[in-house]
Design a protein that fits this description.
The complex is a heterodimer of chains A (627) and B (248). Chain A has 627 residues and is α/β, with parallel strands linked by helices. Chain A folds into five domains: 56 residues, no CATH class; 93 residues, 3-Layer(aba) Sandwich (Glutaredoxin); 247 residues, Rossmann fold, CATH 3.40.50.11540; 75 residues, Ubiquitin-like (UB roll) (Roll); 84 residues, Up-down Bundle (de novo design (two linked rop proteins)), CATH 1.20.1440. Chain A is built from 27 helices and 14 strands. Chain A has a six-stranded mixed sheet. With 248 residues, chain B is α+β, with helices and mostly antiparallel strands. Chain B folds into two domains: 76 residues, Ubiquitin-like (UB roll); 129 residues, Alpha-Beta Plaits, CATH 3.30.70.20. In chain B, 22% of the residues lie in helices and 17% in strands. In chain B, a hairpin with a 2-residue loop joins strand 1 and strand 2. In chain B, helix 2 packs antiparallel against helix 3. Chain B starts with a strand and ends in a 12-residue tail after the last helix. Classes of the chains: A alpha/beta (627), B alpha+beta (248). The interface between A and B is large, with 45 and 40 residues. The structure holds flavin mononucleotide (FMN), iron/sulfur cluster (SF4) (2 copies) and FE2/S2 (inorganic) cluster.
């Protein structure tokens, strides 16, 4: 075994649960995971070889085909397409003399596409060996091609290539908060003076800590406050955060886990990237508060450990986030006896994903954290009672933890006074597509779509995809609808399409996304998403029929009735939504409104005609069938 | 003392810990299924056993092999809606792999084929994928023809849970998900797979085939020639009243 491999394994204490992290390190060090490396890892970790091979085969960013110095993966979200990524892919392939999807003969370069990389407000984007480069142009690709051909190591590429914008266009209580690291934590752990930032709300912020004996009942009181705030999960499902924390707190076990879901794989969503870049302390405050609640404030609740599951596409955030964690450790905000509270121990480690959207589903995420293939589990039991290593685990979205920290600082009443009756607080939207000012917009819940469109400078808007492919697509008559759990629930994506766009192509892009990202566990989704992709391609090629449209509806029914997780349930949504609202863009592609066999019988006879030298009407089958 | 739930209008008793499918089978009631096997932990991937379950909290669809039985649950299984779903799922499995039944030695003893026949699947329904899948004849005692694999994971569960070997594992994702074996060469011959393994007898379709016994049983006497799969499944199910009949 090589020294490098030994070092990597030692860094991860030869822990089989860290298999995915080990594989990510191996991929980065060797540019692939060679068959002999798989064998070596399996024996070093005491795992069956095929288990390791099966994990490598699951994740898009782990390669066991051949070594390759530069893997260049273009983000292929619809927004990248709208910004012309297809032509850029061809351009780069020509520059590098490589065939798309194939490692060059000399093992130098590989150019392919990947699912949305979360840079929709500054696309088109690509990843080079996992490092994100936004705002691609021909000039920038010239530079990249030169660096590749000169074999300059990626670490030495000019920093400006990787420079990224936060594009914060509208800030509210969350993004605009003035809290210092640990403020929210101190507020919950000890009676602290009301926090200045919410001066305007100081009056209505009944200081919720008033009269409470500091730490003794602190964790219970904080839980009550979170419940009082009506905070609901921001990752999509909208589950009440207080109830989730309470269930986890009440589950009996010596060990508990707090997991932050930073997988952000939904195409069109990038708000967690910006929150991780600008609100890391607030997030870690929120996770620590969660540990405080579910672990009972360090009093007899056993020990609590935290994970941040960071999508592989955000590899560039790993070191900055680790620095924040290190700083917090030295400031007493993480580690043993946090803020001097005896017995309140908690730390957070970051795990990287490796290109699998389904790992955003919380039970798949936990499997992935355990170093396995990211396949959603059977539920019940739920993660709050049987999560990471079968211990009680709270999984929340990045934004949810940030909001929880705000609640701890300013109180539940203050928080629920913002937003609507059923949707307390604010929502951070990731806006991209056809608008003048794409970026991050934070609004109190209840804002109308038309307002958002006006703010981001969208004109001639045809449709908006709310919450990404698994959300809903709405057309102009619906722009009065509101962003809120009671109307348009969203995990944050807000993708704008103007009247120059073809909504069929949008749906086709999403169908490809789901088929690529299906984990393949259950029959309906594994096969159904592949059929949907093929059907959309068939329609695009001009061979579609009404029968195909009916088949899509049948697929939707089957997926809704029987898919194992949310990915399958929603996989047909974009197609059905656009079919309902923009049917003509499907119909004008149909070859026949009646029936069109996928198999071209007359075409199949071409060889026979050539051999017999015949081309008369009698040698053709076409016409009769169509009349 | 046991509780009951309702299956298609009739009471079915269960003991805590049983799933709806397990309780139904031990009560002599059939729910179509494919990836479930009484000897292994249910994992719920084929979805053929899907039922509609109504409780106080409303109604939802669920795989009955993993759905915990609960007092008061009202389960709909033998409905046209559920059987139509099952037919579609079987069609999907046929379309996904390469199933040339007439030349397959598992024909007549194949659960997929028998299920299709029992449910009245008359056509393929979807365009075939014609995937390119390997055939491995390296092992002296077995032929591994993954063209017919339906990814039910029974061989994997048998190999890990019973044989403690992990001969079979899954790799890939989505429609490219596939069976791999536990050897660096990728060949079955280089694993420790043996004739006595439990995993050698659980494949419901014609993937893991014993050599030199093919087509030994004449047509008319094969497993599903005389009794449909719905009857066979009940024969195989462990019954509380008859503990000697535990295994298939
Ligand atoms: C296919 C799929 C992908 C998901 N991706 C994410 C994700 O990227 N980030 C996220 O926070 N939640 C995601 N979720 C939702 C999670 O399962 C889970 O509900 C969420 O993390 C809970 O956190 P919350 O209560 O704070 O929203 C996804 C769900 C599904 C079904
Ligand atoms: S619905 Fe799709 S992603 Fe979810 S478990 Fe089934 S195959 Fe996997
Ligand atoms: S080989 Fe047979 S038992 Fe194994 S997964 Fe495939 S179909 Fe199931
Ligand atoms: S038998 Fe229940 S999902 Fe396969």
């Amino acid at each position: 075994m090589t020294q490098t491999l030994q070092t990597i394994l030692a860094r991860h204490q030869f822990e089989p649960t860290r298999l995915l992290q080990i594989l990510c390190d191996v991929q980065e060090a060797f540019s692939w995971i060679a068959p002999e490396t798989i064998t070596a890892l399996a024996s070093a970790l005491g795992l069956p070889r095929a288990r390791v091979e099966g994990v490598v085969g699951f994740y898009s960013f782990l390669y066991s085909d051949a070594p390759c110095r530069y893997r260049l993966l273009f983000s292929d979200n619809i927004t990248d397409r709208m910004l012309g990524n297809q032509a850029l892919i061809t351009y780069l392939c020509e520059k590098l003399w490589v065939e798309r999807g194939r490692i060059s003969e000399d093992g130098l370069a590989y150019v392919e596409t990947t699912s949305c990389t979360g840079l929709c407000d500054q696309g088109p984007a690509l990843l080079v060996n996992g490092w994100a480069i936004p705002s691609l142009t021909r000039e920038r690709l010239d530079m990249i091609a030169e660096l590749v051909l000169a074999q300059t190591p990626v670490e030495q590429w000019p920093r400006e290539l990787f420079a990224m914008e936060n594009n914060i266009r509208r800030a509210d209580i969350l993004i605009g908060n003035l809290l210092q690291p640990g403020d929210a934590l101190r507020a919950a752990l000890f009676a602290a003076p009301p926090l200045g930032e919410a001066a305007e709300s100081a009056a209505n912020a009944r200081s919720w800590r008033e009269g409470l004996p500091a730490a003794e009942h602190g964790s219970m009181d904080l839980l009550e406050e979170i419940k009082r705030s009506n905070l609901r999960g921001r990752g999509g499902a909208g589950f009440t955060t207080g109830m989730k924390w309470e269930a986890c707190r009440n589950a009996s076990c010596e060990q508990r886990y707090v997991v932050c879901n930073a997988d952000e794989g939904e195409p069109g969503t990038f708000k967690d990237r910006v929150l991780l870049s600008t609100q890391a302390d607030l997030l870690f405050d929120g996770m620590t508060l969660c540990a405080y609640v579910i672990g009972g404030g360090g009093r007899g609740g056993g020990s609590t450990h935290g994970f941040l599951y960071l999508r592989g596409e955000y590899r560039h955030l790993l070191e900055p986030l680790n620095e924040v964690l290190a700083r917090r450790r030295s400031a007493g905000l993480l580690g043993r006896d946090i803020l001097g509270l005896a017995g309140f121990d908690f730390d957070i480690e970051i795990h990287l994903g490796a290109g699998a959207y389904v790992c955003g589903e919380e039970s798949a995420l936990i499997e992935s954290l355990e170093g396995k293939r990211g396949v959603p589990r059977n539920r019940p039991p739920y993660p709050v009672t049987h999560g990471y290593l079968q211990c009680p685990t709270t999984v929340n979205n990045v934004e949810t933890f940030c909001a929880a920290a705000l609640v701890a600082a300013h109180g539940g009443d203050w928080y629920r006074s913002i937003g609507t009756a059923k949707s307390a607080g604010t929502k951070v939207l990731s806006i991209s597509g056809d608008c003048a000012r794409p970026g991050i917009y934070e609004y109190p819940f209840g804002v109308a779509v038309s307002q958002v469109l006006a703010d981001c400078g969208a004109g001639e808007t045809l449709a908006v995809q709310i919450s990404g492919p698994s959300g809903v697509c709405i057309a102009a008559p619906e722009f009065g609808r509101r962003i809120a759990f009671e109307d348009l629930a969203t995990a944050g994506a807000f993708t704008v399409f103007d009247t120059s766009r073809d909504m069929f192509e949008v749906a086709r892009n999403f169908a490809h996304f789901f088929a690529h990202e299906s984990c393949g566990f259950c029959t309906p989704c594994r096969v159904g998403t592949a059929i949907l992709r093929a059907t959309m391609d068939k329609i695009a090629a001009g061979h579609g029929t009404l029968h195909d449209l009916a088949e899509i509806e049948r697929l939707d029914r089957v997926l809704n009735q029987s898919a194992h997780c949310g990915l399958g349930h929603t996989a047909c949504n974009p197609t059905l939504d656009t079919l309902k609202r923009f049917r003509p863009s499907y119909q004008r592609r149909l070859k026949s409104l009646v029936f069109e066999p996928a198999f071209d019988l007359d075409g199949a006879l071409a060889a026979a005609r050539r051999m017999t030298g015949r081309d008369d009407a009698g040698a053709h089958l076409s016409m009769e069938a169509e009349t | 003392m046991s509780d009951t739930f309702v299956l298609d209008g009739e009471d079915v008793p269960f003991v805590p810990g049983q799933s709806v499918l397990q309780a139904a089978l031990s009560a002599g009631r059939y729910i179509p299924h494919l990836c479930y096997h009484p000897e292994f932990k249910p994992h719920g991937s084929c979805k053929v056993c899907t039922v509609k379950a109504n409780s106080g909290l409303g109604s939802r669809y669920a795989s009955s092999c993993t759905l915990p039985a609960q007092a008061g649950l009202e389960v709909e299984s033998a409905t046209e809606e559920m059987n139509e779903l099952r037919r579609t799922l079987v069609q999907m499995l046929f379309a996904e792999g390469n199933h040339f039944c007439p030349s397959c030695e598992k024909s007549g003893s194949c659960a997929l084929q028998a299920l299709g026949a029992d449910l009245g699947v008359m056509t393929a329904g979807f365009r075939h994928f014609y995937p390119d899948r390997p055939l491995d004849a390296s092992h002296p005692d077995f032929l591994l023809d993954s063209n017919r694999c339906i990814l039910c994971q029974l061989c994997m569960r048998a190999s890990s849970e019973v044989d403690h070997k992990h001969v079979f594992v899954l790799s890939g994702r989505g429609i490219t998900k596939h069976l791999i074996v536990n050897s660096a060469s990728g060949r079955l011959a280089d694993t420790d797979f043996a004739l006595t393994d439990k995993a050698a007898e659980v494949c419901p379709v014609g993937v893991i085939l014993k050599k030199r016994v093919g087509f030994a049983v004449p047509i008319g006497q094969r497993r599903f020639d005389q009794r449909p799969i719905s009857a066979q499944a009940l024969d195989d199910a462990p019954r509380p009243s008859d503990t000697s009949r535990g295994t298939a």
